[in-house]
Amino acid sequence: TTSIPLPGADKTTVTGIVFSTPMNQPYPNAPVWLAEVFREGEYGAYVVNVAASPSTFADEQGVFIIENVDPKEYVIVIGNPESISEVIPDDTGRARVWKTEAGKVLDVGQLNISLSPPTP
What we know:
Elements: E1 12-20, E2 25-26, E3 31-40, E4 43-47, E5 55-57, E6 63-69, E7 73-79, E8 85-87, E9 98-99, E10 105-113
């Protein structure tokens, strides 16, 4: 079990497990990015800034924890956003949007992806 630290009053923590469906196992060391969602009216877009977006690597069991995140709306991107990556979809196949809240931990659960871990 992984201990999940509680965020400060004005920040949030995002945690979950990355799972490779082709390998039928957790995806170790998977890069995990939070892409901020920007909205204008009924339209929205998400952006991964490789220099500034919150990110981390999953551990050997696929568990990730991203601490001290600003409370906003995010889309989760697994992999390298500049090459091979996968956006976690909602039930309709569009990018799923998670709303984080200040002072709370958001557990997104198991994120099933079609990417396979690289072979050593």
